[in-house]
């Protein structure tokens, strides 16, 4: 059985859906600070904090858990700069407490939600896993520290892990039962679609003076269910005795902010009024993954590679939100 922390959040809930569709058993642990009850369907949900040892003891005693997939974390980059304590405390300390419980209960398979934010400013693109890791904000650092901790725990205690470094998670369940819902929302695609749906009047493009063809930032958008598939494959590999490793998960294709807004207009059939704003602090001009390693070693094959399909799924969700 798989323990999924943060399984009521955006990426975690899609991973749970993916495993459930394959008939696998999961239990979700979520603090519900940012999670949604509607995102957790027909699987046990334990509401609690990972820092709370009693909650973890109860979980590991009650369920036959042999693997942990750990999504639970705070993920607002800007907030991590203004309130780093919240990020180091929650993201690092709670991971430590989870790993300690795993040690005690003899659970050795660990899949960790990492991020391309562990790389910091790109020295080259596409970025492979050999790219130096120099995170430039406490959020990226919190993920980086966790990777370091896992590495040391592997050497000392035999923990086996896969750290999955996501690029821009996007899209949603094509059936529209679950989707992306952040409060506050800061991500480009949902914001653009909320303008299209009339929930917002307009949006701001954060900078059009970057050294890119249209001056706006380029990102690599990867469908959330393709991320889910990679978690499942990484776990299979660990269960089959594979070594600890880390993988970039991206589509390997870059789209500019303007291009994304254009696709959002096309998919929704609505005009999206934009205004130009200053650059957002800490935004590198271009982030594009090389995911060759995940494809080669995990046999990962992203299914939703068409940006229009990704945005169509997000638009279906945006116009039929359940939460
Ligand atoms: N962006 C923007 N306006 C918005 C939200 C985002 O111009 O209202 C830009 C942001 O500066 C970045 C890109 O869109 O270049 C993707 O941002 P997002 O927050 O979705 O993901 P990130 O790359 O920061 O993880």
Main sheet record: 7 strands, parallel
Query: Going across the major beta sheet, what is the strand order?
Result: 3-2-1-4-5-6-11
CATH topology of the largest domain: Rossmann fold
Number of domains: 2
State mean pLDDT (0 to 100 scale): 97
Structural class: alpha/beta
Number of helices: 10
Return the CATH class of the largest domain: Alpha Beta
Helix content: 25-40%
Element order: H for helix, E for strand = EHEEHEHHEHEEHEEEHEEHEHH
Bound molecules: uridine-5'-diphosphate
Q: What is the terminal separation in angstroms?
A: 27 Å
Unreliable stretches, pLDDT < 50, 5 or more residues?
A: none
For CATH, the homologous superfamily of the largest domain is named as NAD(P)-binding Rossmann-like Domain
* Cα gyration radius (Å): 19 Å
What is the strand and helix layout of this fold?
Elements: E1 2-5, H1 10-21, E2 26-30, E3 45-47, H2 53-62, E4 67-70, H3 77-82, H4 84-104, E5 109-115, H5 138-157, E6 160-166, E7 168-170, H6 188-196, E8 203-206, E9 218-219, E10 221-223, H7 224-239, E11 245-249, E12 255-256, H8 257-268, E13 274-277, H9 292-298, H10 307-319
């Amino acid at each position: 059985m798989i323990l999924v922390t943060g399984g009521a959040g955006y990426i975690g809930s899609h991973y749970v859906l993916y495993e459930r569709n394959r008939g696998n058993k999961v239990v979700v642990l979520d603090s519900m600070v940012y999670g949604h009850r509607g995102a957790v369907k027909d699987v046990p949900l334990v509401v609690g904090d990972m820092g709370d040892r009693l909650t973890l003891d109860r979980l590991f005693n009650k369920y036959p858990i042999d693997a942990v997939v750990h999504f639970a974390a705070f993920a607002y980059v800007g907030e991590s700069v203004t309130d780093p304590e919240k990020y180091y405390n929650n993201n690092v300390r709670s991971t430590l407490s989870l790993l300690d419980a795993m040690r005690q209960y003899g659970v050795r398979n660990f899949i960790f939600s990492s991020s391309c934010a562990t790389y910091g400013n790109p020295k080259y693109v596409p970025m492979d896993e050999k790219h130096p890791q120099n995170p430039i904000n406490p959020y990226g650092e919190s993920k980086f520290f966790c990777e370091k901790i896992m590495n040391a725990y592997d050497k000392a205690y035999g923990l086996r892990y896969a750290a999955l470094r996501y690029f821009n998670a996007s899209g949603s369940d094509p059936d529209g039962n679950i989707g992306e819902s952040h409060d506050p929302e800061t991500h480009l695609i949902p914001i653009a679609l909320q303008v299209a749906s009339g929930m917002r009047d307009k949006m701001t493009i954060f900078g059009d003076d970057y050294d890119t063809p249209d001056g706006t930032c380029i990102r690599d958008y990867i469908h959330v269910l393709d991320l889910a598939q990679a978690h499942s494959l990484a776990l299979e590999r660990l269960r089959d005795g594979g070594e600890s490793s880390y993988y970039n998960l991206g589509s390997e294709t870059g789209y500019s902010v303007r291009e994304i807004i254009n696709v959002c207009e096309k998919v929704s059939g609505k005009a999206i009024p934009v205004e130009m704003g200053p650059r957002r602090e800490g935004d590198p001009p271009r982030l594009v993954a090389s995911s060759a390693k995940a494809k080669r070693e995990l046999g990962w094959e992203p299914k939703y590679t068409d940006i229009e399909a990704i945005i169509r799924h997000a638009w279906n969700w945006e116009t039929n939100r359940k939460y």
